[in-house]
Amino acid sequence: SDKDQMKKKVGEYAATFIQNGTAIGIGTGSTAYWMIMALGAKVREGFQITAVPTSRATVELAQAQGIPLATLNDVDRLALTIDGADEVDPAFQLIKGGGGAHLQEKMVAAASDRMIVIADEQKLVNRLGKFPLPIEVIPFGWKQVQRRVAALGCPSSEIRQRDGKPWITDHGNYILDAHFGAIADAPALGHALHEIPGVVEHGLFIGLATEVLVGYADGTVKELRK
Ligand code: DER
């Protein structure tokens, strides 16, 4: 589909930013998929890389491509992380977590000197919040968290389900998808969410993305500057 073509183009273009002989973070999702495919091809041509995956799903994908892997505990810093996003605003603040991996994604991005976000054009928004904000919560007492999230101005949120059961993250937690609508102050909301006992991590990425590569329907790819 055209959407796949956009993701493929921007994912492959992002792979050209990876320097030989470095350690990088590799993201999760259908756009990161294409970057991982392109990285696999480079590895098979002798490219030296160490990749830290951001989810179990990405571990499996990267292993199948023969990409040498490391865990986040094996490295001090990463030169670069390349990952997707669900929303990107003009300040490069993000909503992530559509794929349920934002806890690992944020830890890997935070350990990286650069974070390149790869997105198709629909991900660009003026104001974050149309996409429901994923919040990883521990299963114990999650309804208390839901009540406090409501008090922050989000009356509508639900535990992410798969086949009628709560979807479980790589770390055995739930995801609460919170329909905030337009978020006026993302940093303030991020801090307020971390005050709630039982919140593991939320999908607001503030001050992490350093570059954004966008795939457009006409087949072009653009690098955004802040
Ligand atoms: O879950 C995530 O954070 C993914 O990176 C997601 O935000 C982007 O996934 P996509 O590239 O499949 O749209």
UniProtKB/TrEMBL annotation:
PANTHER family on file: RIBOSE-5-PHOSPHATE ISOMERASE
SUPFAM superfamilies according to UniProt: D-ribose-5-phosphate isomerase (RpiA), lid domain, NagB/RpiA/CoA transferase-like
Catalysis: reaction(s): aldehydo-D-ribose 5-phosphate = D-ribulose 5-phosphate
Top-level lineage group: Bacteria
EC class (word): isomerase
Functional note: Catalyzes the reversible conversion of ribose-5-phosphate to ribulose 5-phosphate.
Protein name: Ribose-5-phosphate isomerase A
Spans through the membrane: none
Residues reported to bind substrate: 28-31, 83-86, 96-99, 123
Key word Isomerase present: yes
E.C. numbers: 5.3.1.6
Pathway(s) of this molecule: Carbohydrate degradation; pentose phosphate pathway; D-ribose 5-phosphate from D-ribulose 5-phosphate (non-oxidative stage): step 1/1
Annotated active site: 105 (proton acceptor)
Any Pfam family: Rib_5-P_isom_A
Record-linked HAMAP family: Rib_5P_isom_A
Example of a GO biological process term: D-ribose metabolic process
GO molecular function: ribose-5-phosphate isomerase activity
Membership in a protein family: Belongs to the ribose 5-phosphate isomerase family.
GO cellular component, as recorded: cytosol
Keyword Isomerase (UniProt): yes
Keywords: Isomerase
Subunit annotation: Homodimer.
